[in-house]
Amino acid sequence: MKLRGQKSLASTIAPLLAIVLAMFTPDDVSLVWAQKVTGSAVASGSSVRPKAATHPFEPAEELVYLGEFSRALLKKVDVADFRFTANREPSPQNMGEVESSQDQGSARYLLKLTGDVSSKGFFSKLFNLRFREQIESIVEPNPFAVKKTKKVDEQGKRARISESTYTEGRVVWTEQDPNNLSRESRTSSATFSGQMQDVLSAIYYLRTRPLEVGKTFEIAVSDSGNVYQVPVQVVERNRKNTVLGRVDTLRVDPQVFGPNRMLAGDGQFSIWLTNDSRRIPVSARIKMKYGTFDITLRKVIQNPALQKSLASIAVE
Prior knowledge:
Helix content is about 15%, strand content about 45%. It is built from 6 helices and 14 strands.
């Protein structure tokens, strides 16, 4: 089994691992501090009133996951660390404007999503498999659609840098070897209609949708210049023990394995999201012939910049 256009197991694992995202405010005390600091900032001269977040992952969050591998007698071996962030940034055509998108009916900001997935521990040594994948996605918040994707893919000594742009129903993908800039770039393009996602923005988009057990819908996802229609099935409702406690969840299965899909061959990809308005992905599981990968939520900070400010206040 291999990812289209790639040749290694790492190329299959890393994009899948990079999909799993979440949101949670870990500490009630931090929430109280956040309210105090935000209130002080507004009271000290800002004329812009704070706006309610359009999506549960706005205005900012930082996400931490752990990936584990199991096969036969090899149980729950740490294989990868994850770190994801979501932030608002000004839309280029509106850099000097302070009005929000809610006031004007069009986006005055974009969402910048970043993901960093890297191999770790015994797994890397056992299989001599070392990888790191960094993804940056620029997303239009309403309607929720990706505008640009940048990716850095490192597998051992091999490295690739790629960029995808999405304009007027067309995606254009370019990939370069940073270790050999004289080598001709690889390019690919495809047409699409409607809202497009990449592998990083797809789960954020999933969190914005209503989910009901038994329902199936499709998400258009682009990867390496190709466009895939990914069926997503809401399979069941159950309760799970998580870092958030014991919570009600919905199991969602994106159909990424199979002929003419993102991953050739047999496998299953499942995500568990909290069954509430936040739709927090608390865990995921990837089953394939190599074994089973479990990805588990460990820590999330809702407002990373604020948390750093609070930390500096604490030491003063």
